[in-house]
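sorry for the late reply, my laptop died twice this morning and i had to redo everyting from scratch. anyway the thing you sent over, i finally got around to it. pasting the sequence first so we're on the same page, its 189 residues, then the predicted structure underneath. double check i copied it right bc i was rushing
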Amino acid sequence: MNKEVHYKIYKPYGYLSQFVNYQNKRKSKKLLSDIFNLPANLMAVGRLDEKSEGLLLLTTDGKFSNYITSTNIEKEYHVMVDGIITADIIEELKNGIEISVDGKPYKTKPCKAHILNDTSHIFDRFVRDERHGITTWLSITLTEGKFRQVRKMTAKVGLPTLRLVRVKIGKYKLGKMQPSEILEIKANY
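ok and here's the structure:
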């Protein structure tokens, strides 16, 4: 019997959350296999888009993957936005807002949101020069994961996302990991 393996990684900015380029159109895209030499049957649990970074779980265990993606597991994102977040915007995000999913209107489920005053835990990466305007960091915790949901939510309230870092999936945390770092974890579900 094969032993299932589970990892958490810090997916760096600019990489797709996959090991194989299934589209073959864009061979120049960077894949996780460019960084990690891992078992062939390893799969990413959920996704982070190319411009997003942070915690990504990898496993050979389909039951674990299904558990994480099909239940109301909380996923926390720390998001740098273009502009100043107000209390009204936080409340709007918390209560759910209408975004587009597959070209149709969709109201997001209520979520947790608050302004982040301390970002010392986030790996420092240049995004833009401060002369281009004020940025603010916030935390958004979701129990759903529609395509580019956080980016669509912040854009809808007039604060485009400049940087998105997933810091938590259920009980698994990014902590002080650095981009491209990998740690083996135990799956308890």
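The radius of gyration is 17 Å.
thats about all i looked at so far, will dig more tmrw
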